[in-house]
Amino acid sequence: MAAMRWLLLLLSLVVCRSEAVFNRPYEIRLQNNEYTDVLVAIHRDVPEDMRVVDRLKQIITEASEDLYVATNSRAFLKEVKILIPKTWTKKPEYLPAGTETFERANVRVDVPNPLYGENPYVQQKGGCGEAGDFMHLTPKYVVDKQYGEDYWGPNGKTFVHEWGHLRWGLFDEYGTDDPASGQSYPHFYRTSQGGVRPTGCSAWVAGTNKHTVTGSPCRLDPGTGVYESECRFYPDEQTNRATGSYMFMHFLSQVTSFCHSDPAGDPLSFHNREAPNKHNSLCQGQSAWDVMTQHPDFTNGANPPQKVRSTAPGFVLFEAYIAPRLGQSAWDVMTQHPDFAHGANPPREVRTTAPGFVLLQESDFRIVLVLDASNSMRGEPLRRLNQVARRFIQGTVYFGSSVGLVTFARAESLEHPVISVDSQADRDSLAATVPTTTSGGTCIGCGLLKGVEVRA
Question: What is the pTM of this model?
Answer without folding.
Answer: 0.77
